[in-house]
UniProtKB/TrEMBL annotation, chain A:
Pfam families given in the database record: Ald_Xan_dh_C, Fer2, Fer2_2, MoCoBD_1, MoCoBD_2
InterPro entries per UniProt: 2Fe-2S-bd, 2Fe-2S-bd_dom_sf, 2Fe-2S_ferredoxin-like_sf, 2Fe-2S_ferredoxin-type, 2Fe2S_fd_BS, Ald_Oxase/Xan_DH_a/b, Ald_Oxase/Xan_DH_a/b_sf, Ald_Oxase/xanthine_DH-like
Organism: Streptomyces mangrovisoli
PROSITE patterns in UniProt: 2FE2S_FER_1, 2FE2S_FER_2
Similarity annotation: Belongs to the xanthine dehydrogenase family.
Keyword Metal-binding annotated: yes
A molecular-function term among this protein's GO annotations: 2 iron, 2 sulfur cluster binding
Swiss-Prot/TrEMBL keywords: Iron, Metal-binding, Oxidoreductase
Protein name: Aldehyde oxidase
Record-annotated 2Fe-2S ferredoxin-type domain positions: 1-74
UniProtKB/TrEMBL annotation, chain B:
Species this chain originates from: Streptomyces mangrovisoli
PROSITE patterns on file: FAD_PCMH (PS51387)
Protein name according to UniProt: FAD-binding molybdopterin dehydrogenase
SUPFAM superfamilies linked to this entry: FAD-binding/transporter-associated domain-like
Every FAD-binding PCMH-type domain range: 1-172
InterPro entries: Diverse_Substr_Oxidored (IPR051312), FAD-bd_PCMH (IPR016166), FAD-bd_PCMH-like_sf (IPR036318), FAD-bd_PCMH_sub2 (IPR016169), Mopterin_DH_FAD-bd (IPR002346)
One Pfam family it belongs to: FAD_binding_5
A GO term for molecular function: oxidoreductase activity
Length: 909, 270
């Protein structure tokens, strides 16, 4: 066997059934990524003798005698980037970057005909972050990045600091490290939706050559915890064990096998003998709440923090302000309907997983694909009784999150194995496990009733919300509470009432997902108001504009008012203005003959952080070479916060961003960071960075003034020096002088995440429907985003486009289907359709002109919120085109056609 | 993905007794895409040296099971036969990208016997005939349309090998029309209907795949009326036989099949 890879020869024989992807990675070519391992996502694309192939499907033995090029070999040997790499940097055609190697290797192989038909050329490449516009720009050679002068980087299109590593395949994601002596873990998962484990025999598994250990519920701590990660763990129910003696969904882990190789661990899993006492299961949340339904968690309500365990209600919210019955009596029209949203998977291209070991100081070190390294450390310490200083949690570059990694799904069991075996252990989920054994977006059923007077005044709004949280409560109550917050507060109505339930069922757990429940409820509310307006003969947008809260109004939900939430900037009126302009400008877009055309909009509001506090620490330090080091806790998974942190620091320290090195997502670098979730990467962690940088700038000026004996007011930072009336003191010299007198040029910044502001979004679509087939074409897509001061327009635009694209997936086709037994049917990308290049239209993105009084430098969050108005805007446009109100997602062609036929709009055959 | 239970790769050129856990390895694009815990040995067809597409003296085409989709596409693009455009249309009906075309084989797609297998659609519509070789060396020929008997089911014994598919000359001289529906843009087929019109005798054949669990072939000595076509399809596919999976509701598939069949009837008889 002889394979040439990027000019280097490998002569080791592959294993008989090995694919080229793992053969390459085992030899250190970590640029070759695993997104699906099934030929669907293209992240592992390499060239074999010049032909692009998916290396996960390519039998390694067939590479004998051939030359393989991976992304690491795309640049010329002297380091000169390939033109395609250059273009992906210029356009920033990536966010998390996990798919980028695949795009580069595919693009580099396209001929002219293929370049003219990118939707088809990119059939075999999935990107979950960008929404594809940035990729198109990269392929077409559009340049977006800028190199502003020192101190002028805020508000400019700075590129991501990790860009050069991303495009050369040298950025290090979770598993892109070589750990000597590494053992591999595989999980045996439950085939039953509900069963007690009567017996479990590991003897045969332990006899498999290479197997070191098999862990079962007998080895797991008795303690219950929540996989959800929040600053305050008491927000979430403690209903989960590392390994349990009861299984509550098909896919729940039953045993963990640790072996020298994944192959031996898999074989060990097949040899574990489990005797199950199968129990009755309940899959539907309404059924689960009925008397006599199987109980998912027969636990103590107080200890486990489950609202009503016997009724399968893990959390509930009830509230009323005013009197909704009186409100409906005052209305001239009342609309009532039930809306349903489906299960959706985050589908970050990097799967869940962790690799852990003891470092030389005997500290448990966990490298994990997580949005919350600090909270994961806290959870591991609680679970295993370890002091914080004995545990270090680190995230490398993370390949996408979307809320799915605000969860401890693997670190607990990997830590258990490392603590027992004192050997490094790795667990890397397969793509199928992402569907069977991770979390999903919560499926919601929302009964909405809304009344208004003829003049368009909303009189009452009532919601009954049932969220299916699956077998474990993790984010269930928190998502349920959030879902009826901003969605109900953004409209002014004297009478509001809510009854909301988060309900256990024997299905794969739901968790945190971009929007955190808001999008599901907004689908119902924004659709219902659209319909209500039509019934009153009013323009839906006018109706909404009339009833949204103004800048000085309180934000009221049936639960009352949140003390620390403020409208610290208001751009909703501007958002509505953008929609009005789009309506006028694109009024006469044409569609094919026989197609029906319509337009629709939806509005959204979101708090710029979670309630109850969200903590970030940052530390800025002057280094001996006159550059700066910024330490932050927050993780980078394509959200772009690292870019913005550098911009903020560069602004305060009056330098260019290349003078600032960021250390991050490591429990060693700062005291604490709640994590990169709830859209806090810029507004909370960024504020800590701002404070640290500003404090350091002050410290440098103070020191320089004292050192030079000049007035402080005459000193300023610029040009890598402190400028003063007598000349300039280079920062390098300043560092040396400070050091000589024992002064450390470093400063800390802290922000507790409160008070909070709100951000606004509006989405508008004009679309055409073929009533004969159910096919829908988006003719125009316009999005208005009120992000306050936009720190990096290119990047913020990317967040909006990516959010719209992900939401279009959830609107049009994404669906984690569960069969009658409770098993996930869609455990691969060929069965679970992710938006492809061909599916996503370009969205016109507009930013509002606002400056927030709370956010750093006037900025607000803009990462979850673009998702939320998309589905209702789409459904409203579909209603406008066809006269038919669709109340259930996704809107696949078959369902749309059926709905139109049943309504008499489409002909049947 | 790695197939960790596989302990040996055998070369198909050196026959050995077929054992449980053996599987033919064509392009590998299916086998390596899902866990195959029962497999122990892969019998590699890549060194057989079979000519991908062999034009035979009688004008027919013999397509080797190992012919890749990319090779078939290139061949058809250069071909002047009347039915040549149908090849590219069917290649493009793959959910998989052009990169997969470089590895995936015609034989693999036919033997997977999935309703949405576009090589099945193509070969069934063009009267393709499978050449099958049993472990004892005996040979038999089966029409592609009856080789696939259900979703994932086929007329193939253990160890039997699909050597090639032969498309008769007359089928290659037919005018063709193609329609495909998917729930998504450029997505997996939920409905795929092909019509072929024989210029010699004016007969029309309609081949329905993807919306049914196996290929459904309808032949009309003379082009039917719209009503005749519709009634023929409805009697060939009973109400409960429309394929029901996550790539389309049966009712929609039935509707789209009838709609496309009618469009095709009009197109080829114009």
């Amino acid at each position: 066997m002889r394979i040439e890879v990027n000019g280097r020869t490998h002569e080791e024989d592959p294993r008989p059934g090995q694919c080229l992807r793992t053969y390459l990675r085992e030899r250190g070519w970590f640029g070759v990524k695993k997104g699906c391992d099934a030929g669907d996502c293209g992240a592992c694309t390499v060239h074999v003798d010049g032909e692009p192939v998916h290396s996960c499907l390519y039998p390694a033995f067939r590479a004998d005698g051939r030359a393989v090029t991976t992304v690491e070999g795309l640049a010329s040997p002297d380091g000169e980037l390939h033109p395609v790499q250059r273009r992906f940097l210029d356009a920033q055609g990536f966010q998390c970057g996990f798919c980028t190697a695949g795009y580069l290797m595919t693009t580099a192989a396209l001929d002219r005909e293929q370049l003219a038909d990118l939707p088809r050329a990119f059939k075999g490449n999935l990107c979950r972050c960008t929404g594809y516009r940035a990729i198109e720009d990269a392929v077409r050679g559009v340049r977006h990045v800028e190199s502003p002068e020192a101190g002028e980087s805020v508000g400019r299109n700075l590129p991501a600091p990790a860009g050069p590593q991303v495009v050369t395949g040298t950025a290090r994601y979770t598993f892109d490290i070589d750990v000597p002596g590494l053992l591999h873990m595989k999980l045996l998962r439950s085939p039953h939706a509900h069963a007690r484990i009567a017996a479990i025999d590991t003897a045969a598994a332990l006899r498999v050559p290479g197997v070191h250990a098999v862990f079962t519920h007998h080895d797991a701590p008795e303690r219950h915890f929540s996989t959800a990660r929040h600053e305050h763990p008491e927000e979430d129910p403690d209903d989960t064990r590392v390994l349990d003696d009861t299984v509550r969904y098909i896919g729940q882990r039953v045993a963990a096998v640790v072996a020298d190789s994944e192959a031996a661990a898999e074989e060990g899993c097949r040899r574990v003998e489990v005797t199950y006492d199968v129990l009755p299961a309940v899959l539907d949340p309404e059924e689960a709440m009925r008397p006599g339904a199987p109980v998912v968690h027969d636990k103590d309500a107080t200890t486990a923090r489950i609202a009503r365990p016997r009724d399968n209600v893990v959390g509930e919210a009830h509230g009323e302000i005013g009197d909704v019955e009186a409100g409906f009596a005052q209305a001239d029209a009342v609309y009532e309907a039930t809306f349903r949203t489906q299960r959706v998977q985050h589908a970050s291209l990097e799967t869940h997983g962790a690799v852990a070991w003891f470092d030389e100081d005997g500290r448990l070190t966990v490298r994990t694909s997580s949005q919350t390294p600090f909270l994961t450390r806290r959870a591991l310490c609680a679970l295993y009784g370890l002091p914080a200083e004995k545990v270090r949690v680190v995230a490398g570059r993370v390949g996408g999150g979307f809320g799915g990694k605000q969860e401890m799904l693997v670190e607990d069991v990997v830590a258990l194995a490392v603590l027992r075996l004192r050997r490094p252990v790795k667990l890397e989920y397969t793509r199928a496990e992402q569907f069977h054994g991770a979390t999903t977006r919560h499926p919601f059923t929302v009964r909405v009733k809304a009344g208004a007077r003829r003049d368009g005044t909303l009189t009452a709004l009532q919601l009954r919300v049932v969220a299916n949280t699956g077998a474990y409560g993790n984010h269930g109550p928190a998502v349920m509470f959030h879902s009826v917050g901003e969605s109900m507060a953004v409209y002014r109505a004297p009478h509001k009432k809510v009854d909301a339930y988060s309900v256990y069922t024997h299905t794969v757990p739901a968790g945190a997902f971009r929007g955190y429940g808001l999008g599901q409820v907004m689908f119902a509310v924004e659709s219902a108001f659209d319909e209500l307006a039509r019934r009153l003969g009013l323009d839906p947008l006018e109706f909404k504009a009339r009833n949204v809260i103004g800048s000085g109004e309180p934000m009221v939900t049936p639960g009352g008012h949140e003390e620390d939430l403020h409208i610290a900037s208001y751009g909703l009126d501007q958002c509505i203005g953008i929609v009005r302009r789009a309506q006028a400008r694109y009024a006469d877009e044409r569609a094919p003959d026989g197609w029906l055309v319509g337009e629709g909009a939806a509005l959204a509001m979101i708090a710029t952080g979670p309630p109850g506090g969200h903590i970030a620490d940052a530390r800025a330090r002057l280094l001996s070479d006159g550059t700066f080091e910024l330490s932050v806790g927050t993780a980078e998974f394509g959200n772009g916060t690292t870019t913005v942190h550098r911009q903020i620091a560069a602004g305060e320290l009056a330098c260019t961003v290349d003078r600032i090195t960021v250390r991050q997502s490591d429990t060693d670098v700062v005291p604490h960071d709640t994590g990169a979730f709830a859209s806090t990467g810029v507004v909370v962690a960024g504020k800590a960075t701002l404070r640290a940088s500003r404090a350091l700038a002050d410290l440098l000026l103070d020191f320089a003034a004292a050192h030079l004996r000049v007035p402080r007011a005459d000193c300023r930072l610029a040009d890598e020096a402190v400028l003063h009336p007598g000349g300039r003191l280079p920062l390098k010299e300043l560092y040396a002088s400070a050091r000589a007198v024992g002064v450390e040029c470093a400063a800390d910044g802290h922000f507790g995440g409160t008070p909070r502001s709100v951000a606004f979004n509006a989405q508008w679509f004009r679309l055409a429907v073929d009533p004969g087939t159910g096919e829908i074409r988006i003719l125009r897509s316009v999005h208005a985003a009120d992000a306050g001061t936009v720190m990096n327009p290119m990047q913020c635009r990317g967040q909006v486009e990516g959010g719209v694209a992900q939401a279009l997936g959830a609107t049009l086709f994404e669906n984690v289907r569960i069969d009658a037994r409770g098993e996930v049917e869609t455990a691969a990308f060929r069965r679970y359709r992710l938006p492809q290049y061909a599916d996503i239209p370009r969205t016109e993105v507009h930013f509002m002109e606002t400056t927030d009084a709370i956010g750093p430098l006037g900025a607000k969050s803009m990462s979850e919120s673009p998702f939320n108005p998309v589905a209702p805007a789409f459904a409203n446009a579909l209603r406008d085109a066809t006269g038919v109100r669709f109340t259930e997602l996704p809107l696949t062609r078959d369902r749309v056609w059926l709905g139109l036929r049943d309504a008499g709009v489409a002909e049947g055959t | 993905m790695d197939l960790n239970t596989v302990v040996e790769i055998r070369d198909a050129r050196h026959p050995a007794p077929w054992l449980p856990g053996d599987a033919w390895l064509g392009g590998g694009t299916y086998l390596f895409s899902e866990p195959q815990p029962r497999l122990r040995r892969l019998v590699d067809l890549s060194r057989t040296g079979w000519t991908p597409v062999e034009p035979l003296p009688d004008g027919s085409l013999e397509i080797a099971a190992t012919c890749t989709i990319a090779q078939l596409s290139r061949f058809a693009r250069a071909s002047a036969r009347t039915a040549a455009p149908l090849f590219e249309q069917c290649c493009r009906a793959f959910l998989a990208s052009f990169k997969i075309w470089n590895m995936a084989t015609v034989g693999g797609n036919v033997c997977n016997a999935l309703p949405a297998g576009p090589m099945i659609s193509l070969m069934a519509a063009l009267d393709g005939e499978c050449l099958l070789i049993a472990q004892d060396g005996s040979r038999r020929r089966v029409p592609v349309a009856s080789f696939v008997t259900g979703a994932g089911r086929k007329d193939l014994a253990a160890g039997e090998l699909l050597r090639s598919v032969t498309l008769p000359a007359r089928a290659l001289d037919r005018r063709t029309a193609f329609r495909q529906a998917s729930l998504y843009g450029l997505g997996r087929s939920g409905v795929l209907v092909i019509g072929t019109l024989d210029p010699l005798d004016g007969s029309l054949a309609i081949t329905v795949t993807a919306s049914t669990v196996r290929p459904v072939r309808l032949r009309f000595p003379h082009p039917p009326t719209a009503a005749e076509l519709r009634s023929a399809i409805c009697s060939a596919v009973a109400e409960g036989e429309w394929f029901d999976d996550l790539h389309g509701l049966p009712e929609w598939r039935r509707h789209m099949t009838l709609r496309y069949a009618e469009e095709i009837r009009r197109e080829v008889t114009r």
